[in-house]
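Pair request: fold both.
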Amino acid sequence: MEDLQPKAEQVSAGQTRSGQWRLLRSHWQVIAAATAGWALDSFDFAMLLFLLPHLGRVFDVGLPAMTLIVTATGLAKIVGTIGWGLAADRFGRKLVFIAAVLCFSCAAGLSGLAWSYASFMALRILFGIGFGGEWTVSVSLLMETVPESIRPYASGIMVSGYEIGYMLAAATFHLLFPVFGWRWMFMIGVLPALLTIFIRKNIAESPDWIRDQQRHSRRSAFEAFEFNPAALQAWIFSGTINFMLWSVQVLYPTFLISVQHIDASRIYPFLAAYSVGSLTGKPLCGYVAARLGERRTIVLFLCMVIPLTVLYTLVSNVWLLAAGACLMGLFASGLFGILPLYQALRFSVKGRATGIGISYAMTAASSIAPYAIALLSPSIGLRSAIALFVAGSALLLIAIAAWNTTRWMPGGPRSAVDAQESERSPGTHART
């Protein structure tokens, strides 16, 4: 009899995994739409990062001026995320998702027609407004559509789209930029508009939003939103994790070219290594979160990030650099896989899009990271400035994750992940 129990547990675990896989497949349309939206969004933004040194020469401005464009794009998200979030809580997730994709894709294409630094700045601000809306609405739609048991996995898969877009941008820059020039690199960004056709035909409105509207049809978005410590934690965590990731990746191509003295045509392998690590890390983060809980997953990943800053920035051997890029993608960028779930758990459905919109607006603070690094680098060097910002952000995130706000979460004292674990182990308390 003692030998039968482990076998029974293995069968039960196998059935659970099989059922989760079936659920993921049955909801592939909404997962694919959210992932594709994030990928196409990422493609255009990453292309800007690759072109920073070249555009600085085109517009005859220095690195601080070019990083100011990146910062302005981030600050534009304040308008976009909150505005689109309010609209999504009022008019529905699907319609606003389509509008946000159209906004950022049109702005991306028009960026290729810029005739001056000022015109380019204006178009990137417009892109930032749409950029924030895509994230805000797709997270709400996805987390409200897929069943609770697969939300950690869907969360990790969705944000993996960023790496798909990043790798496509890197490959496009490597293959097409020398032939067609910088303008066509942005004009390609109009292609995401085609995604709206898929959304319109294949994606249904959020069932949670529909039910909430039927109960409270006359309530405004501002009246629906609930502020509590859990919401505050979501906002601070979102801003800090983005600050860390902007420190990791925005100036990385510039670091490879100007500090490591690698020719621009040969930086692709390092960018690909980072992207492969990140593409693996985000679904892995969702997998780990479904088993260990969000807090333990966050601490585990960040404890790997801190020592990895040495391999990522402070070595010169190309093989160690490549390893550092891959591992930093796996753990630092991979941790982002928990963010859609982390945000969604801290807001009730009636004001979720608004809450997530404000969360993403808080990431506007992260846009100052590359600018601050650029200002600090003349004193301590670019490699040390990046390492300092990445490791410092990781330590701060650990402190934020240690703050227990679960008793203030909408729907009860425990998160949805904890509830899933309780269902798997009746009569026990889940780990957070």
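--- second member of the pair ---
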Amino acid sequence: MTWLVVGTDAVLVVFVLMFAWLVMKLRLRAFLAGAGVVVAYAVSEVVKLVVQEERPCRTAPSLAECPAPGDWSFPSNHSVIAGSSAMAIWAMHRTLGWVAAVCALAAASSRVIVGVHYVHDVLAGLLLGALVSWGIAVLLKKKQARHDDAPTVVLSRLG
């Protein structure tokens, strides 16, 4: 395994650590944003079953071990996870979001460099992941706004 292969998986660990910190700080909001990553991954699995694109490592040498046949290339799951994580983190914490965006681009790029994905696989993965997380962030913001706009009822003590 090359450092690029290990690095791609290490970036996913960085996302987990960022989410863990945000969950401690923001609790439910961070948990729900993280759930968006799971939704994005599930959507990407459905797309893979529909598209069924072979990986470039089936016809050309690669730096990483080529996944088993039936593990389709489009879209890149690593890129979906990276894109959705980066968008979710950015929606909660701008500074960490920029770090997450750089990590997402690095993770996606490494999948092409090691030869297990095409460029369009990782671009589609980043976009799909980011869009799903963005959509969930918008829904969470609307729900929070409705909660903030709700009238506050104050009961006075009798007696």
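Observation on the second member. The first helix runs from residue 3 to 26.
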